[in-house]
Design brief:
Number of helices: 7
Mean pLDDT: 97
Shape: globular
Low-confidence stretches: none
CATH superfamily: 5'-nuclease
Number of strands: 5
Strand content: 15-25%
Length: 129
Amino acid sequence: MTCVVDTHALVWYLGGSRLLGRKAHAELRKPASRVVVPTIVLAELKYLHHRKRIDLSFDTVRRVLGDDPRCILHPLDEDVLDLLPLKLDIHDGIICATALAIERATGETVKVITRDEEITESELVDVLW
């Protein structure tokens, strides 16, 4: 399965937090899972660490993601911009649009790993938690 990971889910997964949903945790541990990390998620992580809101450093996250062949960084490109939903805040919109762009390109269902209520209630993407 391909999943696009939201910022809090990635922080909780890498930090070993019990706040991460059971299904999300199981999917992120599967060797066959393809884990897509939108660049906006990395930008948020860098910002949150700089503001001392999370302990997980940006450099650690980049290293861990780089060492995991299942992880793919996805840029904010024209395909994502074309699919950007304007009814969500910009960060959530980019995460959803990334999933939608991958679905469009591959024809497969992509799940967003998030606990975010706005994303879930928008029903724009399939959510896994």
